[in-house]
Design a protein that fits this description.
The protein is of the alpha/beta class and about 220 residues long. The chain contains 5 helices and 11 strands, in the order E-H-E-E-H-H-H-E-E-H-E-E-E-E-E-E. A 4-stranded parallel β-sheet has the order 6-2-1-10, with helices on one face. About 30% of the residues are buried.
Length: about 220
């Protein structure tokens, strides 16, 4: 069984860990806070605007910057799929003005609680107060994560889902890395520069015959 470590317990990391577990992997989810989805609980003024039922074209049109790169994602997992995901797992939803979707309770914590239950049922190992110091890379492939304690946690694959940098008080650092000789990670929101709409892979700079690099200081 393959072991996958997901760094970041927000919506993206939670869904990544869940999909990995449902695909048969041994999934571990690292979260630096004492609970999941800390930023999620403050969205929609505490109500959590889960999605919007506009068609894909309208969704993309309203993404800041170049939202065209999201066509593929929305085509594979639509707003309707998102609603079905939550309602099939016991969360009641409602649609308001502008086709915005909220939990019927108007409480974002219910969304987080639902995600937590889903992870538990899927067998995902959730590790709280876990901070990733650096990735361990061999021949351009992640083979584990070093925690701040210095301990190496081996993995067959690592997913970095540390979010943006707009609300650092929630513990979100955007996965920023400062060792340019190893790898570059870019936060999804609030990062400077003209990087909106671009996707990135780990960039490994080889020096001499060395083929082991690490990505420093993120999560």
């Amino acid at each position: 069984m393959k072991r996958i470590i997901v760094i970041g317990g927000g919506p993206a990391g939670t869904m990544a860990a869940l999909m990995a577990a449902e695909a048969g992997a041994e999934a571990a989810l690292w979260e630096r806070n004492n609970n999941l989805g800390k930023k999620l609980t403050i969205t929609g003024k505490g109500r959590c605007n889960i999605t919007n039922l506009a068609d894909i074209g309208d969704l993309v049109k309203n993404i800041p910057g170049n939202g065209a790169f999201l066509y593929g994602a929305f085509s594979r997992f639509s707003a309707e799929d998102t609603c079905n995901f939550f309602t099939s797992r016991g969360l009641s939803l409602k649609t308001e003005r502008g086709r915005r979707v909220f939990p019927c309770s108007d409480d974002a914590h219910e969304v987080v609680d639902t995600l937590g239950r889903v992870l538990e049922r899927a067998g995902v190992e959730v590790k709280y107060h876990m901070r990733a110091k650096r990735l361990c890379l061999r021949q351009g492939k992640a083979c584990g994560v070093y925690a701040y304690s210095g301990e190496l946690h081996p993995a067959d694959a690592v997913i970095v889902a540390t979010g943006g940098v707009t609300y650092p008080a929630t513990g979100s650092t955007g996965g920023r890395a400062y060792d340019h000789s190893a790898a570059a990670f870019v936060g999804a929101i609030g990062n400077p520069g003209n990087l909106a709409g671009r996707s990135f892979r780990i960039i490994v700079e080889k020096r001499g015959n060395a083929n082991l690099r690490s990505c420093q200081d993120f999560g």
